[in-house]
Write a structure and sequence with these properties.
The protein is an alpha/beta fold. The chain has three domains: 3-193, Rossmann fold (3-Layer(aba) Sandwich); 232-352, 3-Layer(aba) Sandwich (Cytidine Deaminase, domain 2); 387-510, 3-Layer(aba) Sandwich (Cytidine Deaminase, domain 2). It has helices spanning 14-23, 32-40, 48-52, 67-74, 80-88, 104-108, 121-125, 130-140, 154-162, 168-193, 249-262, 287-297, 299-302, 315-321, 336-342, 396-409, 435-448, 472-479, 494-503; strands at 3-8, 27-30, 46-47, 96-100, 146-148, 206-211, 223-227, 240-243, 269-274, 277-283, 305-309, 326-331, 349-352, 364-369, 372-377, 387-388, 417-421, 424-429, 460-464, 482-487, 507-510. Strand 19, helix 18 (472-479) and strand 20 form a beta-alpha-beta unit. Helix 12 packs parallel to helix 14.
């Protein structure tokens, strides 16, 4: 009779699975906790301790580690020498291994690593040793042993056994899944226990959450994975979808960019993002005011955009949003009236997430290359050392606008130039190969829209994400009415830029820190 070994932490479905196996004529060996569950449900099975003639010890830390178990799993059935050794040592072959592991992810998810490196003992005790070894042994000998680590496979296995169709293809598929599972499990543990920022070897535990509508283009398939131990820290991955079609790859990228931007602000804020760049953003007295100001920066580009708010969406702003086509809206919450209005559009994607909080510090970012990966600290700083570069200091209204412009520029693709009046963008130039071209684009966008500003009360300011290699940007900025500039400084030609700014009576300050974004 074929024999199955059961050792499961999660016992959902195990009783039903065991009953089906018994009906098909299988013997069952089980470790302590699993054996107890089966016996309570009147399913005949033999405890591992009886097979190995040794009790579980060390509070269950040692229970299946025995030649009588691993010999039965690893013996190659077509190898006469192996079978002879099994007979000599009275070892019975094991034809199926059913194991799921201690819930390390459930124990640790959302629990930060202790700064003193004193790991909680409950975390340590949820590091599975025997279960991982059993899965690896069975997966290695997949040609002779069926390995089961996924509860969803119970039904498949029974169906195939009843049809006498456990193929080598299925065995190999289950083997690969088991090795993925143990590798993922070990990656969870190593990630949680690792304190080095850039260790010599690195693994990232990723768990699939969903398939996406498509990738960057409709012909590309895509899926969303989460880094399990940090899932609740992600603004986007842990957001709750309230309405609309499935998200696409591009939706996620744009949502991430929009949310990171609005997180920088405390007052009601709206960011409209297209192709990973803000087309317009503004603070306002309320969310409707913020939205209308952000929209006015570039009404054309707002079509099909992503909207992010750091405050709750109410009826007033929902009525304005519904006047155009937008892909997604994300906000901390929505009033009942706002939901009724927005849900009139079938495909609009509505997401709920608390994006008003400050982002976590000291986070590592990963970016894939072809067969490689870049790893860096996330850009979670804003300023280094603010210095006045020119003779004239910016007055208070300029300072307020410069503060806003600098925060926005951090989230615009390089080369980035942002034009601002008061606390709203009026022109954004992004992703150009030269900084002067970014300025020209920002100016053209500003010219297309009539903004009702008293220019004496609300001066035009400029933010640049990196220093000026030449003074041409300052000269052009003066021609369009810019009165104050914020930039990192540090160019070997800073003196030329400063001279031009002084000649034009433009106030200019340096931040000592650039914000390239690629």
């Amino acid at each position: 009779m074929p024999t199955a070994l059961f050792s499961v932490s999660n016992k959902i479905g195990i009783v039903e699975f065991a009953k089906e196996l018994k009906f098909l004529g299988w013997d069952i060996i089980s470790s302590g906790g699993t054996a107890k569950t089966l016996k309570e449900n009147f399913i005949e099975n033999v405890e591992v301790s009886e097979i190995i003639e040794f009790p579980e010890i060390l509070d269950g830390r040692v229970k299946t580690l025995s030649p009588k178990i691993y010999g039965g799993i690893l013996a190659i059935r077509s190898n006469k020498k192996h079978l002879k050794q099994l007979r000599e040592h009275n070892i019975k072959t094991i034809d199926m291994v059913v194991v799921n592991l201690y819930p390390f992810d459930e124990v640790t998810v959302g629990i930060p690593k202790p700064k003193n490196r004193n790991i909680d003992q409950n975390v340590i005790e949820n590091i599975d040793v025997g279960g991982v070894s059993l899965l690896r042994a069975a997966a290695k000998n997949y040609k002779d042993v069926i390995v089961v680590c996924d509860l969803d496979d119970y039904e498949v296995i029974i169906k195939e056994l009843k049809n006498n169709s456990i193929t080598q293809e299925l065995r190999l598929t289950l083997s690969a899944k088991a090795f993925r599972h143990t590798a993922y499990y070990d990656s969870l543990i190593s990630t949680y226990l690792t304190y080095e920022k850039f260790p010599t070897q690195s693994v990232i535990p990723l768990k699939k959450l969903s398939c996406l509508r498509y990738g960057e283009n409709p012909h590309q398939k895509a899926a969303l994975y989460s880094t399990v131990l940090e899932r609740d820290k992600s603004i986007i991955v842990s957001a709750k979808q309230l309405h609309g079609k499935r998200l696409s790859y591009n939706n996620y990228l744009d949502l991430e960019a929009a949310c990171n931007l609005v997180c920088e602000f405390g007052n009601p804020m709206c960011a409209i993002v297209k192709h990973n760049n803000p087309s317009g953003c503004a603070e306002g007295s309320n969310v409707k005011d913020a939205y209308l100001k952000a929209f006015s920066c570039d009404p054309l580009s707002a079509f099909g955009g992503i909207l992010a708010f750091n405050k709750d969406v109410d009826e007033a702003v929902a009525l304005e949003i519904n006047k155009i086509f937008v892909e997604c809206v994300i906000a901390p919450s929505y009033s009942k009236e706002a939901m009724n209005i927005l849900m009139k559009k079938k495909n609009i994607i509505l997401l709920k997430q608390n994006i008003s909080h400050k982002k976590e510090k000291n986070v590592i970012e990963y970016r894939m290359l072809s067969y490689g990966m870049l790893v860096q600290d996330r850009d979670d700083q804003l300023l280094s050392e603010v210095k006045l570069m020119t003779k004239r200091s910016p007055f208070q209204r300029e300072k307020d606008a410069l503060d806003f412009a600098w925060k926005v520029a951090k989230y615009v693709k390089s080369n980035a130039v942002v034009l601002v009046r008061e606390r709203q963008t009026v022109g954004i130039g992004a992703g150009q190969m030269s900084r002067i071209d970014s300025l020209k684009i920002a100016v053209e966008k500003m010219k297309r829209v009539k903004h009702n500003f008293d220019e004496k009360l609300f001066p035009l300011v400029l933010a640049s994400d990196a220093f000026f290699p030449f003074p041409d940007v300052i000269e052009e900025a003066f021609r369009v009415g810019v009165t104050a500039i914020i930039q990192p400084g540090g160019s070997i030609k800073d003196d030329e830029s400063i001279r031009v700014a002084n000649d034009k009576n433009i106030a200019m300050i340096s931040t000592g820190m650039r914000h390239f974004r690629h």
